[in-house]
Write a structure and sequence with these properties.
Chain lengths: 306, 306
């Protein structure tokens, strides 16, 4: 089924605890999401870049077979973000954010995309996410991400969004902020009351919690021994999850079993993303490697003798 | 197989984020461990208490069928600890520690205990743990816990201990401190190099990581919606794990499969412990409830469709 992601494409400057730095790394939510989703099937992106976005970067997206008709190039510079990771890799400081073309009007959704069944609204102001939603008249399944900034500054619009989506993915701290509840299960249940059928709480190296109207799930992360750069882990996770769902032609994409299985796919692709800077690891990743790690992880979850 | 735990029995003063406080709660590592282990079979404790330890408290241990021949009563007061939990329940401040009789000589291991096959050395100075070890000539399987204080102040003795045990259980932060490695998998692998066959890294609400010479495992915690008091969760976890192993008459208790299954039992009993102050929940817990939650958890781990 046609899968679309709306979000950002940008250039990241990343500093990791070893002191190693990378400048001008192709990043952004759409980028990581679409690269991850591409292992399951076609994916289309809706995002905006500046004139500094070159053919070299387009070639990276092309490598993943990403449909970039919705990647609008405008006068100005592409979105830039700089961050520095703390020693444990689970926290980071934002060093700078330059919105650039991301500060203007949201990109238009191309006519050819309007038949999309499956939509992922990556982090954006909730007002923009709501506007995007209007542009997909045939949508059957919508999942959104958000961030602390919108929970604090645009709560009313975010709550409106929550009544119109199937699922929400968000970070551990954000679940607490949105719900006002310290216990993660209670926080997720509180968010369900606001509208969605399910909530996925991303906990980085600690995996995720999945609370659905029909049940509850929890997954550890894949036990990675070497984490080079956690940037994009969450967006890859969402890409693997949504790509898996969109590639399955079932009536109800949002049912508990389907989403739970999809989270395992998200977990595994994210575990590859963090093995190199930017899209480095996903660019070299073979489908066979992905399947092998998936199988090892599923085997790990099936505790023997119980 | 006979199971012995060496550690502490004490009185805790506990303050939780709701503001609720409980004074003089029966606690200590041996107490939580033995109550949890008792759901699988007999358990013996080696610990010391003061003259303020009453028949009422002995009756609680008797309720769980704990063998208290190794619970030595001495002149003086029982060990006391006071703590206050932070809002997220995952961190706490120690308000006071009164060693009292715990500051004297370690208790003697009764002659009747010396046939023990399975020994858990709960947190104690490594020198004391080493001395206890000497007193179990028939030991076949030994697991130890430790804490940050000993990693910092008694590292040489702790490293000596590590060469003489089958497994180590410790907290997330402690694994980092002991290994000097920030990545938990790398930290656990580093600790394996120091001697044990396996390391269990306890991560509280995030479950545990299990690194064994024969493989790796990771479990989420049981998704608890209501956490009243996390005190004793780690010791109950160890008790459920060791109780399960000791109740299985197999040749090699330390093999990957057996320990991994045991960690699931530890996870579930700990999820009950935190539902009330002290041993409150374990005292009312029915075997049937335990089995039902275990079954639900195992079902949750088996992600459908994969």
């Amino acid at each position: 089924m046609p899968l679309v992601v709306t979000g950002s494409v940008g250039f990241d400057s990343i500093e990791v605890p070893s002191g190693e730095k990378r400048e001008h790394v192709l990043g952004g939510s759409c980028t990581y999401f679409s690269a991850a989703a591409s292992f399951h099937g076609p994916v289309r992106i809706v995002a905006v870049v500046g004139k500094d976005f070159t053919d070299e970067q387009r070639a990276v997206l092309a490598h993943f077979g990403v449909d970039t008709k919705g990647l609008e190039a405008r006068d100005g510079k592409t979105f830039r973000w700089g961050g520095r990771y703390h020693a444990n890799m689970d926290e980071r400081d934002t060093l700078y954010t330059e919105l650039n073309v991301l500060g203007g009007e949201p990109p238009r959704v191309p006519e050819e995309y309007k038949d999309a069944d499956v939509v992922f609204l990556a982090n954006n102001p909730p007002r923009v996410q709501l506007d995007f939603l209007e542009q997909f008249p045939h949508k059957r399944f919508v999942v959104a991400d958000t961030m602390d900034l919108w929970i604090t500054t645009a709560r009313a619009e975010l709550e409106q969004l929550l009544t119109r989506i199937d699922g929400l993915v968000l970070n551990y701290d954000e679940a607490e902020l949105l719900s006002g509840k310290q216990n993660t299960v209670a926080a997720a249940r509180d968010i369900l009351e606001k509208g969605p059928r399910f909530v996925v709480v991303k906990k980085g190296e600690h995996g995720c919690l999945f609370v659905h109207r029909e049940g509850i799930g929890a997954l550890p992360a894949y036990p990675s021994e070497r984490v080079v750069d956690p940037t994009g882990a969450g967006d890859s996770f969402a890409g693997g999850m949504m790509g898996f769902l969109a590639s399955h032609d079932v009536d109800d994409l949002g049912r508990f079993d389907a989403v739970y299985a999809a989270l395992v796919h998200g977990t595994i692709i994210a575990s590859f993303t963090i093995e190199d800077f930017g899209l480095g690891r996903l660019q070299t990743l073979k489908r066979q490697e992905l399947l092998e790690r998936l199988e090892a992880f599923v085997k790990m979850l099936r505790v023997p003798g119980l």
